[in-house]
Every structure is written in structure tokens, then in C-alpha cells.
TrEMBL record:
<dbReference type="InterPro" id="IPR004682">
    <property type="entry name" value="TRAP_DctP"/>
</dbReference>
<dbReference type="Pfam" id="PF03480">
    <property type="entry name" value="DctP"/>
</dbReference>
<dbReference type="InterPro" id="IPR038404">
    <property type="entry name" value="TRAP_DctP_sf"/>
</dbReference>
<dbReference type="GO" id="GO:0055085">
    <property type="term" value="P:transmembrane transport"/>
</dbReference>
<dbReference type="GO" id="GO:0030288">
    <property type="term" value="C:outer membrane-bounded periplasmic space"/>
</dbReference>
<feature type="signal peptide">
    <location>
        <begin position="1"/>
        <end position="25"/>
    </location>
</feature>
<protein>
    <submittedName>
        <fullName>ABC transporter substrate-binding protein</fullName>
    </submittedName>
</protein>
<keyword id="KW-0732">Signal</keyword>
<dbReference type="GO" id="GO:0030246">
    <property type="term" value="F:carbohydrate binding"/>
</dbReference>
<dbReference type="InterPro" id="IPR018389">
    <property type="entry name" value="DctP_fam"/>
</dbReference>
Length: 338
């Protein structure tokens, strides 16, 4: 993609960095409208609340942040469109959902990319994540950092899954995405794409045997009532990206932009910790609710990773081969640094 390998353009330079002589600029009375899909109590909502508190504190109360949780203003893609048009200011969503804006964002959905959340942080906070964020500027979006949703794991009602062969034949609900369908079919399951609101009933009625989601989603959705076995496959890690309307951003002066960026950076650290603490708590609760938990051996994870290499290669090539190579190089660097 022509924008991907470029250095920061002049539009972003004027947006991001504090300009000389602007430190005493007057902060105006403003309201930031921040919409997102999860509930206020979810780690996503808690991160948004922290951001709101920080912005109000740093602006002396002049800049307010109004939160719209639980998809009040529409789904993710509708929200992104509103932000591009400047009728909404801000959101946070799965980075992979921006594939329609910049196809390289689809790389974040590739299976078994990261071994740990720390490794994912290093890549999204590093040159690759920053460069990808910069490609959003021509799309009237400004990236303000990446949050955490966690690793996706497999649950089912039929049997413990301790090795690759035990995935064979399971009917697994997946998100409505070609990558996820290919991924689970390649692992030997029968992938069944279904909208999330239909999932609990499908599990209860055994229309499907299992599903895959982060532990926090499994717990808050009460899947332990209809699923016996949870396997920590950690097959996909979903970084969340915080985005701001460039149309609105361009109306802010340098001091206001710097204030928002600082609040976003502090909220990011807070949200990641909240999300990871919530995951630990969710796992404990799922175990207490009677789920049988299985941790795969490193050798078995390697077998799963090898099995889905054709899926990784196919979708990496579709996204952008040069960007894929850059991403894999950054991951190797992060692995070597641990």
C-alpha cells in the first residue's frame, strides 16, 4: 500500500506534535463524544472512563468527555463512519475491524501471532503499530494508541481438548469472517459463523458444540452454564485501537492535542492492567463455576501453529506481503527481547 512505508506526513506532524510558542494557548470549552460497543463495566468501558477523568482533570474541567457505551450510537463500522464525518469524536474497537479502511489492519487477526500480551504490546506500541496508525490519517482518522481485549480461547461441551486431534469434528461457532472460518476448518473443526447475540442459544440447544472468545467474554456471557471445557488455545490476540476524528482533531490547537494524547497514553496503561486483571479474575470464576480448564503444552501450541500456517500465509499475502514481513520481523524482535 502506498501510504504504509511512508514517514509521518505533514498532516500528522501538524496534528501530533506541540508547536513552538503554543504552550500558553487558551484551552476552549469542548465536549468529546466517545462511543464504544462494550458495557461501562467492561475493561473497555473502564478505560474510557479513566480517559474521561484524565481529560477533564488536565483541562481544568474545560474539556468534558461524554461516554456512549453498549453500542448506543450504532455498531463499530457505523461509529467509524460517523467519526470520519466528524459527527462523532472518538471510539475504541478491534483493530482488525479497520481492514475496510486500511487492509493491513487485517494482519492483527492472523492466528498465533503473539506468545504473550507483553509481546503484543511491544509490537503495537513499536514502529509497526505506529506506522499502521499513521495510515489512518488520509482516512480522516487519528490513532491514539492500542488497548487490550485479550487472547481468544476455545470452549466446548463435548470433551477436554488437550491436543490438536481433539478439535477434530467439533462444531465451533466463529465470528463472521473468512479468516476465522478457514482457521477452524483447518484445525479440523466444523466452523459455524454466527452473530454473537445468537451464540448462547446455539450452545444451549447444542446447535454448535463450542465457541472461541477471550475469558472475560466467556465469563460475562455466562457460557459456563452451557460449556464444560475451556482450552487456553490463545489462537488470536485482539488489540483494540483508540481512534479520533481528524476533522475534529484539526480544530484543536497544539496544547489541546497534547493534553488529549497524554490522557490517552495514561488511559492505555490503566486499561491494559484492568483488562489483564479482569482476565485473571474471569478464569478463576469460570473454574469456580465448574468449567474444566486445560493449558496446552508448548509443543501442542507449536503443532497448532504449524497446522494453520497455510491460513496465515494466505491472509498475510492478501493484506500486504511487505507489511506482513515487517510485522513478523517486529514479532521476532519482541520474542528475542524477552
Amino acid at each position: 500500500m502506498k501510504h504504509f512505508g511512508k514517514v509521518i506526513g505533514s498532516a500528522l506532524l501538524s496534528s501530533v506534535f506541540l508547536l513552538p510558542g503554543s504552550a500558553n494557548a487558551e484551552i476552549k470549552e469542548r465536549t468529546i463524544r466517545f462511543a464504544f460497543q462494550n458495557a461501562q463495566e467492561h475493561p473497555q468501558g473502564q478505560g474510557a472512563k479513566k480517559f474521561a477523568e484524565l481529560v477533564e482533570q488536565k483541562s481544568g474541567g474545560k474539556i468534558k468527555v461524554r461516554l456512549f457505551p453498549s453500542g448506543q450510537l450504532g455498531g463499530d463500522l457505523q461509529t467509524v463512519s460517523s467519526i470520519q464525518g466528524g459527527t462523532l469524536d472518538m471510539t475504541v474497537l478491534n483493530a482488525g475491524l479497520l481492514v475496510g479502511q486500511v487492509k493491513e489492519f487485517g494482519l492483527f487477526d492472523l492466528p498465533f501471532l503473539f506468545d504473550s500480551a507483553k509481546q503484543a504490546d511491544a509490537v503495537v506500541d513499536g514502529p509497526f503499530g505506529q506506522k499502521l496508525s499513521e495510515t489512518l490519517v488520509p482516512k480522516n482518522l487519528v490513532g491514539l494508541g492500542y488497548w487490550d481485549l485479550g487472547f481468544r480461547n476455545l470452549t466446548n461441551s463435548r470433551r477436554p481438548v488437550t491436543k490438536l486431534e481433539e478439535i477434530q469434528g467439533l462444531k465451533v461457532r466463529v465470528v463472521q469472517s473468512p479468516l476465522y472460518i478457514d482457521l477452524f476448518n483447518t484445525l479440523g473443526a466444523n466452523a459455524v459463523p454466527l452473530p454473537f447475540p445468537e451464540l448462547y442459544t446455539a450452545l444451549e440447544q447444542k446447535t454448535v458444540d463450542g465457541q472461541e472468545n477471550p475469558a472475560t467474554v466467556i465469563q460475562t456471557s455466562k457460557f459456563a452454564e452451557v460449556q464444560k471445557y475451556l482450552t487456553f488455545t490463545r489462537h488470536v490476540y485482539n488489540p483494540q485501537i483508540v481512534i479520533f476524528s481528524k476533522r475534529v482533531w484539526d480544530r484543536y490547537d497544539a496544547e489541546e492535542k497534547k493534553l488529549v494524547e497524554e490522557a490517552a497514553a495514561e488511559a492505555k496503561a490503566y486499561q491494559r492492567q484492568v483488562s489483564r486483571d479482569a482476565e485473571t479474575k474471569a478464569v478463576e470464576q469460570l473454574k469456580a463455576q465448574g468449567m474444566q480448564l486445560t493449558e496446552l503444552s508448548p509443543e501442542e501450541v507449536a503443532r497448532l501453529r504449524d497446522k494453520v500456517k497455510p491460513v496465515t500465509e494466505k491472509f498475510a499475502k492478501e493484506a500486504n506481503e511487505a507489511a506482513s514481513k515487517e510485522l513478523f520481523a517486529e514479532i521476532e524482535k519482541a520474542r528475542a527481547a524477552r
